[in-house]
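Possible regression after last week's pipeline update?

I re-ran a chain I had predicted before the update to compare outputs. Posting the input and the new output here so someone can diff against the archived version. Not blocking, just want to make sure nothing changed silently.
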Amino acid sequence: YAAFLQESATIMQEPRLQECAAALTAAGDTWREFAAMAARICKKRGRAEDSYPAMVACINRCGAMEEKVFTELRQWSRQQP
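New output (post-update):
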């Protein structure tokens, strides 16, 4: 979806969509961080900083980042003619 937003931002010349694309890409990076941590824990190869509370914090960050993006998109879409 971030790639779609990036293309849309270019076509529509809309910087707010570009900002949303960048923020969604960052959220995706955080999801990858969560998945890697979960895999390490499941395979019993966890690092010192890997823990279930750290996974909770990571997934909460993902949710907050995505919520912010979709709130921004909703506000942007309501301002369009």
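Follow-up from reviewer: compared with the archived run. Residues 15-42 form the longest helix (28 residues). Marking as no regression found.
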